[in-house]
Write a structure and sequence with these properties.
Elements: E1 4-8, H1 13-24, E2 30-34, H2 39-49, E3 56-59, E4 62-65, H3 67-75, H4 79-84
Parallel strand pairs: 1-2
Antiparallel strand pairs: 1-3, 3-4
C-alpha cells in the first residue's frame, strides 16, 4: 500500500471524515501534517497543491485533493486501485 499523507488541522471535520473513509478502505497509517502547528507546512501545502483548505491528501505521489475529491474517487471505484498500487 502506498504512503498516505494528509495536510490537516486539529479541528477540521472534513479531515476527520477523510481519515475515517481511508481507515474504512484499509489504510492503517496516515502521515498527518498539521498546518495549524507549523506555518512552513501551510506554505508547503499551498505551493504544492495550489489550495488553501484542508484536508489535502496524497496517496503515494498522487495528489487526491480534499475530502470531497476523496469521496468522489471512492464512489467512482477509483480509490481502491489507487490504494492497491
Amino acid at each position: 500500500m502506498p504512503k498516505v499523507r494528509m495536510y490537516s488541522t486539529a479541528v477540521c471535520p472534513y479531515c476527520q471524515m477523510a481519515e475515517r473513509l481511508l481507515h474504512e478502505r484499509g489504510v492503517t497509517q496516515i502521515d498527518k501534517l498539521r498546518i495549524d502547528l507549523d506555518p512552513v507546512l501551510r506554505q508547503e501545502m499551498m505551493s504544492a497543491t495550489g489550495r488553501r483548505t484542508v484536508p489535502q491528501i496524497y496517496i503515494g505521489e498522487t495528489h487526491v485533493g480534499g475530502y470531497d475529491d476523496l469521496a468522489a474517487l471512492d464512489r467512482a471505484g477509483q480509490l481502491a486501485p489507487l490504494l492497491a498500487s
